[in-house]
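Encode chain A's predicted structure.
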Amino acid sequence: MPSQLITKSKYLNGLQCPKLLWIEVNQPERIPAPDINTQYTFDQGHLAGQLAQSLFPRGISIPNDNFMENVKQTRQLLSMRIPLFEAGILSNNIYSRIDILNPVNEDEWDIIEVKSSTSIKDVHIDDVAFQKFCCDQLGLNIRKCFLMYINNQYIKHGQINPEGLFTTQDISGEVEETKTGIYNRIEDMLEIISASLCPEVSIGKHCKEPYECSLRECWEGLPEHNVFTLYYGGKKAYDMHANGILAISDIPESYKLNGKQQIQHSCVVTGQPYVDSEAIGQFLSSLQYPLCFFDFETISPAIPLFDGTRPYQNVPFQYSLHVVEKEGAIPLHYSFLADSPDDPRPTLLTELRETLPDSGSVVVYNQGFEEGILKELALAFPEYDGWIASMCNRFIDLLTPFRQFYYYHPLQEGSASLKSVLPALTGKGYEGMAIANGMTASITFQQVTYSEASPETREKV
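Encoded structure for chain A:
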């Protein structure tokens, strides 16, 4: 592969941050390997791409593990005028692979980019604009550009129907508009990657848009309780950082903080938690025994696995229920974990109705999540509709006293999430656990249940 080469991924990285681009080319070892969440997103995109290819039965998939072989085979196959998958387009010092290059008319082609997202984003237009520029430079006559993305209203019945799963939209106009100035942008990027020194780029919104940057080193010099941990700091935090204000304790009065931010600021300065005893007392008085502490874990694949489900729908595969029958009683624990690749929902509902008491508060953390899953279950299994409605009516959201700042500890660092609140209150967290968050649980369970995994691996998970 030529050393001074701008690929599609490098171009998109260069649009986001020139520092990221330079490091990717010159010191790639500084970029961490994709974490399990990022790799899962890549895998879901790959599955979507394979399904999209089935809509073009005459198509040929070009291997992409060898750069020059990919380019060579692409040039040989272009004359056959059949759909090409992963066609490699190289012109001078720019290169892009195209998901689907589809022949139309006598000498024209359509670019079809496949995404596992459920909507069109600006970065998708930039993506396709670069592809079309590569084709233009090579002399390919591109008629139109399309984005094929997931239709989140598609409901699975039997085998996946790719025509229903995907929405295809003509983005040719947006691509042409975005392509304006692309030559100069590429020239600038070539100059950046050939420089001997890495460009200095300050922290900003680009660190998280359009994707969260994997290069976390830029944030390592910030102090504890830095302005980016300010509760809903947003633009205010970036503005403070740009003006040299790094720590919450150093925020001057000229920055108008809202009530919750003022509480956080005071806690950071004093090192003491804030407690609104009256508000907490009122919250606790709403609890009724038996107390039922409840939590779901779910999977949400892009390609639905079960009849009656949609792309990215949260499907529960596990629940945990602790019941405290009266004040001071030892909690009784009940749980469910799916043990087969079948739809887990029918068995989960049966067991939950058997184990959940008919009265008392159902305590959850972030009520909207559990409530949303239960309402989906009521639609799918209407025989449970009344029971689910009564369960939801008993919900008490334990997130409330922390989100409303009835209690705030400086160790929460502006967050009311359970992963921040738990260690702040108890000194115990999730560090050291093999599966330490809901997303990892979801992905790992999905991997060992709905794809190939040895019995030993599955048992371990």
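Residues 36-53 form the longest helix (18 residues).
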